[in-house]
Design brief:
single chain; 468 residues; Lyase, Ornithine Decarboxylase, Chain A, domain 1; 2 domains; nine-stranded mixed β-sheet
Length: 468
């Protein structure tokens, strides 16, 4: 029986597959030689492959537009990128090249948007959806945008007090409003009502008693967000139908309501065996909205989506070197990598998020079940099969080998830098790895550049106050 790592992958999955291939015994990612990057930059390093961002946007937009045409749907589709997923300028700029709209979550997001606007990255007719809890500073900046002429600003009310604060600010321009519906969340143990959003009955009351009579505001959007994402499950469709029921009720009393925001994103590939029928789900969403509108004799709304992880998640990866292997007992073999997993991919540690884990080299070696451990002093700094309900299998190697074993975690482009606090103080003072940007030039050639070197001792000591 064949038992090399390559045989394991070839027998278990379709391989090569989108994004992953072998070239001369080394793994490549979207045609990028990881061997070349390792030799050029050393490890560990994080990188993002910018062209994948555009591929994701085009794929989703095409599927929605095809479905709209297929069902003769009368509303339009708007793709928004939520900046909280990855705030880096090179990432947001890449998304904007593909004419996305934007979604914000905090006061500083507005400053980011103004910076991009002054750089000529978009015009004032861009649609900007403002979500999240609204501090006074956040509200003030959203109003300022409207008064600057951003006519497609939509301020999504997350609680009742936000509207009262808005009225007190006496905006000089009409403010477009949305309302976020409080959802019945689906945690692992039991259902509960999210702290985010406003209950359906209170939304109706808010409109009839306050918004309707105030000429300075127009209700434009109903927003519903399912935290577990858009999935073909009874839970998702139940919440979807509840949102549609409210949409119908609101539309019959509010003629300005013309948009439905499908919060919650599409899943991304977290394993080589990942399967998800994006086309089917989009067709089901479009057909269900259309049928409801026809049955209730109301106009079909424009559809907004706010895809963050879907937009950038599959563009990112981080590469480590295995420093040492430790056989702690007969059953547990540890591979220790040259950074901390808690620091670099915190979603894996904090919410048990799965990522694609593959070796870069030694695919012809036999394989073994292993645990991956970071070099911090925390016992939780690991990645293994028990927590993730999947075997972690990697090539065996000898400590005498001339070339170390290199491994990569793939599709890490969303949230990891934000959650870990990019460039800040890390657990055990383990530095943030080198950050590399990969793009293609006009001729299609791969271009790689260092965005930031590995975090230095001086940078950390300065933050901690040891250097004046």
């Amino acid at each position: 029986m064949k038992n090399s790592y390559f045989d394991l992958i070839e027998q278990s999955f379709y391989f090569p597959q989108e994004g992953f291939d072998l070239k001369n015994g080394y793994l490549s990612f979207h045609g990028v030689s990881l061997k070349h990057l390792i030799e050029k930059y050393g490890t560990p390093f994080r990188f993002i492959y910018l062209p994948k961002i555009g591929d994701q946007i085009k794929k989703c937009r095409n599927l929605f537009n095809r479905s709209i045409k297929k069902h003769k749907y009368k509303g339009n589709y708007y793709y928004c990128y939520c900046t909280k997923c990855n705030h880096f300028q090179h990432v947001v700029n890449e998304a904007l090249k593909h004419n996305v709209n934007l979604e914000t979550s905090s006061s500083f997001d507005i400053d980011l948007i103004l910076h991009l606007f002054k750089k000529g990255k978009f015009k004032k007719d861009i649609a900007i959806v403002h979500n999240g809890y609204k501090t006074k500073d956040y509200l003030r900046k959203i109003v300022d945008l409207a008064e600057m002429g951003f006519k497609n600003n939509i301020l999504v009310l997350d609680n009742l007090s936000e509207f009262d604060q808005l009225v007190a600010m006496k905006p000089k321009m009409k403010i477009n409003l949305g309302v976020r519906l409080a959802m019945n969340e689906e945690p692992q143990s039991a259902y509960y009502t999210s702290r985010l959003g406003i209950p359906a009955k209170e939304i109706i009351q808010l409109y009839e008693e306050k918004i309707k009579s105030n000429e300075g505001f127009e209700l434009k959007m109903l927003h519903f967000f399912v935290d577990s994402g858009i999935k073909d499950t009874p839970y998702y469709w139940g919440e979807f139908q509840r949102a549609m029921k409210l949409m119908v009720e609101l539309k019959k009393i509010c003629p300005t309501l013309n948009s439905l925001n499908l919060g919650g994103g599409f899943p991304i590939r977290n394993g080589l065996g990942f399967e998800y029928d994006y086309e089917y789900m989009i067709n089901e969403i479009i057909s269900n909205i259309k049928k409801t509108c026809e049955d209730e004799n109301i106009d079909e709304p424009d559809i907004f989506t706010e895809f963050g992880k879907y937009t950038v998640g599959e563009a990112g990866a981080i590469v480590f070197e295995v420093l040492e292997q430790k056989q702690q007992n007969d059953a547990e073999l540890w591979y220790l990598i040259n950074n901390s997993l808690m620091n670099t991919i915190p979603d894996a540690w904090s919410i048990q998020e799965k990522f694609i884990l593959l070796p870069i080299n030694k695919w012809d070696n036999e394989y073994s079940r292993v645990n991956i451990g970071g070099i911090s002093c925390d016992h939780s700094d690991y990645y293994n099969s028990e927590d993730f309900n999947q075997e972690v299998l990697l090539p065996k190697y000898s400590d005498k080998d001339k070339e170390p074993l290199y491994v990569g975690f793939f599709h890490t482009g969303a949230y990891q830098d934000s959650v870990s606090g990019y460039g800040g103080i890390k657990h055990c003072l383990i530095p943030s790895p080198k950050h590399v940007i990969i793009d293609r030039d006009e001729k299609g050639n791969i271009v790689d550049t260092v965005y930031r070197e590995e975090q230095s001792v001086d940078e950390m000591l300065s933050i901690l106050g040891y250097q004046s």
